[in-house]
Design brief:
Helix content is about 50%, strand content about 20%. By secondary structure, the protein is of the alpha/beta class. Strands 2-1-3-4-5-11 form a 6-stranded parallel sheet, with helices on both faces. Strands 7-6-8-9-10-12 form a 6-stranded mixed sheet, with helices on both faces. Helix 2 (about 45-60) packs across helix 11 (about 315-375).
Length: about 675
């Protein structure tokens, strides 16, 4: 009996040791986590801080990245040490923004030769064979763009001060070269440029303020400041405003960071006149890093797009980009909280398992001891075992009940957070749309805009340009694939592309605008490489007010017509457009059809109506569709009303037809009266 009991005791101890080892090693099967090193040249500007923050947020979203960040504080020697240290701890890939062109090259070459891929962001080193991929915008092109802005903004003779960043940085060299080559190119610039001062401020707002303040003590005879970043420009602006001469000097910066201290808000507040968006490449960096680590195809040179920002688009961009920044900060904070909570839960889980194992072992040992020394209490032992089992079952049921309550609460909070995010996205989307107040400066207008799911895949667009002898107005209604959040993302892409095509590329033909929009949508959605079939349908009008008082309409559409009420004849005419859609690899079956401008002379009092297909597809309880024909009949009945009254008439007709039926699609109807 004793020998058998000893055998049971030894076996029990072995089981306890095995269970303990299994608990301690339970994390061996977790998903591989990649170590990604980030060597920043500095962290002293708003743009750099935004870049690092965005990289952290993207790493959190990827889920299996450990981002290790170092900061060289503008020291090439320290950045070399940082890169060697990251190599020593065994990172899987290096992201680096070099402090200068030459000093960092050897360190990057060493880590690259060890088989560690290197992605250079924003700045390049001198040896292109030492890095795997480069991501950044063309600083040379940005310099040219700044020269164009100055040429359009300044008086005939431009005496300018150039604020340089770090002397040996590739961004400093290329931004200066692009600007100075542009102003010296005959036929490219219309005005005479004279550089009167050069100030090296190391991309620092503090140095920009101090050096500009010192310069103003001896010289105020200049009318332009071209700054290599917004921090220096804002510092210089502060010194100029303290001097009381801001109205005499134009200021152009670069970066356009959407923070309280950044360049976009500085343009809104009048501290700078213009800035140029310089993307930080953080989204592309993390996505490319994962492609490289997983052995997937990737681009070796990713050129990022830039565009100018002035008082016309600064506030809308600030709201859009600042909300993204706030979401990044929340995501990083939530990730830290989740990791802390996960660690605590894991520890508690291990402790509970160990306690259960120890209790089980203690129970087994107790049974053996009781069998050896208390055979006369056998019935009592059985009763104790049954009581312990009942208590364990009760505790398990209580634990499951608490766990289910926690899951339900987490699901409720998740739903509230999701709805809150979508409602905030609605605010951002509404801010991107033109206001009726802006359109009423040119026409009498009404807009019926009814998203199906809070945010919309429909949007309408308006932009006005005034020349010396004529006025040109662009107005459009566009329906993107889908509705809700996916459709809203497509609508933001459409708005930004139209701004770029009309305001930056200066394409003003409706047919050419739709051609360029089609090409860019297909390119942005990579439809030649993927099965993505999203796209848009649109009607686009250009209305010119000529010097002799005539009104001319030039229009083209992608599957959508424009409806015209002729105030002279009283007729309502549907003017057909192209059968071709915008974007879509498989959806667009009319790829051979081209966009062609069509022109009509308009009368004062004429009205134009543009609509997406949502209103025509709306059904009632009898499953009948509202149809565009019914809309045109309602327009004909109400065309003599004031345009605001006509809007209410059309809404009442639609709602009376629809009743309490659910809305099937996003609905947009835009009406304008020529004045």
């Amino acid at each position: 009996m004793k020998r058998q009991s000893y055998t049971i005791i030894v076996a029990t101890l072995l089981v306890l040791v095995t269970a303990f080892t299994a608990v301690m090693c339970s994390s061996d099967n977790e998903e591989k986590v990649y170590k990604v090193g980030l060597s920043q040249c500095a962290d002293d500007t708003q743009w750099r801080k935004q870049m690092t923050r965005r990289l952290r947020a993207n790493a959190v979203q990827e889920g299996n990245i450990e981002l290790i960040v170092t900061n060289a504080d503008n020291s090439s020697a320290k950045q070399v040490r940082d890169i060697d240290s990251l190599s020593a701890i065994g990172i899987d890939i290096l992201l680096v923004s070099p402090n200068d062109v030459d000093s960092i090259t050897d360190a990057i070459r060493r880590i690259h030769n060890k088989g560690i891929p290197v992605i250079e962001i924003d700045r390049k080193t001198s040896d292109s064979t030492a890095f795997t991929c480069f991501i950044g915008a063309s600083n040379f092109h940005i310099g040219i763009e700044a020269a164009k802005l100055a040429d359009n903004m300044c008086p005939k003779i431009v005496d300018f001060v150039e604020l340089f960043g770090q002397k040996t940085a590739s961004a400093t060299i290329e931004r200066s070269r692009g600007f100075n080559e542009a102003i010296n190119k005959k036929g490219f610039i219309n005005k005479k440029f004279n550089k009167v001062h050069e100030l090296y401020c190391n991309f620092s707002g503090k140095e920009g303020y101090e050096k500009m303040k010192k310069l103003l003590e001896t010289d105020t005879n200049f009318n332009l400041i071209y700054s290599h970043n917004d921090d220096m420009a804002i510092g210089a602006s502060k010194a100029i405003r303290e001097k009381g001469i801001k109205h005499k000097i134009y200021i152009i910066g670069i970066d356009a960071v959407p923070s309280e201290e950044g360049g976009i808000l500085a343009v809104v507040n009048g501290e700078m006149d213009k800035t140029i968006l310089y993307p930080n490449g953080s989204d592309e960096a993390i996505a490319t890093a994962m492609k490289i680590l997983k052995g997937e195809p990737y681009e070796q040179n990713i050129q990022l797009s830039t565009f100018p920002i002035d008082t016309l688009n600064a506030f809308g961009l600030y709201k859009q980009l600042n909300s993204s920044q706030e979401l990044d900060e929340k995501l990083i904070k939530q990730d830290a909280n989740v990791k802390s909570m996960t660690s605590r839960i894991s520890t508690q889980h291990n402790i509970i398992l160990l306690i259960v194992i120890m209790l089980a072992g203690a129970l087994i040992l107790s049974i053996i001891i009781m069998r050896l020394y208390a055979n006369n209490k056998k019935q009592n032992t059985i009763l104790c075992e049954q009581t312990a089992e009942i208590l364990a079952q009760k505790e398990e049921l209580e634990s499951q009940s608490v766990y289910l309550s926690q899951i339900n609460e987490a699901l409720r909070r998740s739903k509230e957070n999701t709805l809150g995010s979508i409602r905030y996205a609605q605010t951002i989307q509404s801010a991107m749309l033109p206001t009726t107040a802006d359109m009423d400066k040119v026409f009498k207008t009404f807009v019926i805009y009814m998203p199906k799911d809070i945010v919309s895949g429909d949007f309408y667009y308006f932009h006005s340009i005034k020349y010396d002898e004529r006025e040109v107005n662009f107005i459009s209604v566009i329906d993107c694939t889908g509705h809700g959040v996916p459709g809203a993302f497509m609508s933001l892409i459409g708005i930004n592309l139209l701004d770029q095509i009309i305001k930056q590329q200066f394409i003003h033909s409706p047919a050419e605008i739709l051609d360029e929009l089609n090409r860019n949508v297909r390119k942005m959605l990579r439809q030649e490489e993927t099965d993505n079939d999203d796209g848009m349908e649109a009607i686009f009008c250009k209305i010119e007010k000529l010097a002799d008082g005539r009104r001319r309409l030039t229009y083209e559409g992608a599957k959508f017509p424009v409806h015209r009420y002729n105030s002279q004849t009283g007729e309502i005419i549907t003017m057909k457009t192209s059968r071709k859609g915008i974007g879509g690899k498989f959806r667009n079956r009319e790829s051979s059809v081209t966009f062609t401008d069509k022109t009509e002379e308009l009368n004062i009092g004429d009205r134009l109506y543009m609509t997406s297909d949502g209103i025509g597809d709306q059904n009632n309880y009898e499953r009948k569709r509202y149809t565009i024909k019914r809309l045109l009949d309602a327009i004909k009945q109400s065309v003599t009303m004031d345009i605001d009254q006509q809007k209410n008439f059309l809404l009442n007709d639609l709602n009376g037809f629809k009743g309490d039926c659910d809305q099937r699609d996003d609905i947009t109807v835009l009406g304008i009266e020529i004045v």
